[in-house]
Structure formats: C-alpha cells, structure tokens
Design goal:
The chain is about 30% helix and about 25% strand. It is an alpha+beta fold and about 300 residues long. A hairpin with a 2-residue loop joins strand 11 and strand 12.
Amino acid sequence: MGVTTKQIEEFIAAQCAEWPLAGRNFEALKGVEVRYVELPDRHIKVQFNPARIVSSGAKVDARSLAERPCFLCEANRPSEQRGIGWSDGRYTILVNPFPIFPRHLTIPAAEHTPQRIAGRVADMLRLASELEGYTVFYNGPRCGASAPDHMHFQAGNSDFLTISESLDGACLRPVASDGDSTLSVCASPALSVFVIDSTTPEAGQRMFGRLSAALPLPEGEDEPMLNMLAYAAAGGTRLVVVPRKRHRPSFYGTEGEGCMLLSPASVDMGGAFITPRREDFGRLDADVLMQVFDELCLDSEEILNIANNVR
C-alpha cells in the first residue's frame, strides 16, 4: 500500500487535533527561535527547541534500553497515537509527538527488530519517492537513533533542511555507475558525504551495498556508523550517506564548563542543528560547528580513500 503527501497532511492535522501532546508541541514549533550560521561550504540552520531534550538527552546504553518499554512498539504507544500502515503493513507511519519539522513523521517497522539499514534502503527510497516534498532519514544505532532497539525511519518536510541546496552548489565527483544509479563523493570540510542518485529503489539499494562494503566497520559492530537522508530528485531519488566515526562530540553533557547538550543525527547533518537548551543555542557558532564535523565525521582524505575502494 502506497501513501500520498495529501494523505499525510490530513493525518498530521487529525493527530494534532485529537492528541493534546502532539498538538501542543506542533503548535510550539511556530514560536521556536531560528538563526543561521555560515560555513565555507554550506549554511547551517540552528533551532532552539526545548521539547527535543527527550531525544538529545536520551540514554541509549544497553541497560537503559532493556529497562524501558519500547515506545515504537504498537503495544506501548499512547492510546491517542494512530498510524497508517505502509508497504503491506511492514511499517507504520506515525506522527512524531516531539517534532523538529513542521511536518514530522516516525516510521517504525512492524516487528521489534534492531535498528539496521541492511536490506531496507529500497524501502527508504520508495517512501521518499512517494512522499513528494519530504526527506526520509535514517540514524544508525550509534549515530543519533533514540530507539536503536527498534528499526525505524523518520521523515520531515524537505524545505526545513539545507543539505539539498548545499549539494546543488557542491563539487560532486562520480565514483561508480551502473546505468540506473550513480555514486558520487563530496569531500569538503563540513560536507564530507556520498551521494547516490538512482532511477529505481532497487538500483539505489544495490549501489548502497557497494558503498557499504567499503565503509569502515567499528570493532564489534555489524553496521558502519552513518546517517542517511533520501528525497525525490529529477529522474528518481537522491540518497545522501554521511559516514560517522563518533556518536557525540567530546563536549557533550549538561555539567561543566564548555559542555553542550548536542547530539547530532541526520537532521543536524542535513543542515539543521537542534539545541534544546538556550545557552547552547547562543553558543553554537561556526567554530563549534566545525569542531562537531571534525570530531564526528570522516575527513576529506578518509572519504576519498573509501571512494577508491568501492568495487
């Protein structure tokens, strides 16, 4: 079963009307403060959003996950939270009650299974192609996912992010092509990413498989550290893959001089940094942002080495 943008718009409006928590938080978005920071190769939106402390401060260690009920499983969701079945019931589209975007969705798998992207890229690209005007994103289990124990995507209106505009003006170097998909690399200090343009979801998944095989795999892990964003583009879809080397910056925390409650995930890598504390909102400048990219993302040389190893 597919889904349309009109259907989603009506669904969000209905949920906000019948679910007080969601309604209040979506309404509060109209009053959040936003400012922009210019970097040499892109511009970044910074949002002050106190409600997002639920995600930024989430405990994702094994013990904490084991001790709390999974909020993405149907049995544990609030009674007011309804869903739309998608992809023959393999996923459920939900309204995110703690939104960043004016239109923010969470799309968990029906089955309680760990957050892993293997075999699901085609699903991600298919959803992005159906939801015109939305960006679908995936946070790796150690790269910003607040529920790494339950497979899920998220989605929000694309015009909230700045990544597509940045990439349109960037130098993309083709790395591999098979006729239906092309893998390119962008290797600038604040925009070290891979881009897969594909005409079909299946072609995009195949090309991602080639890239994934070349990405570094942390010891003891079964998935490379990464964030991913997908959106409809001319002739198909564009998938942006952001390789990571660290979950949170060295200054992550709430106590001590210089600490900031900053836990970057796909949205931040997509050009919109979310700060749940006012003091962090005021301090997040170009120098701090460049430190974040330096600590969390691979540098240009590492990105190019990976590109050379794609088979």
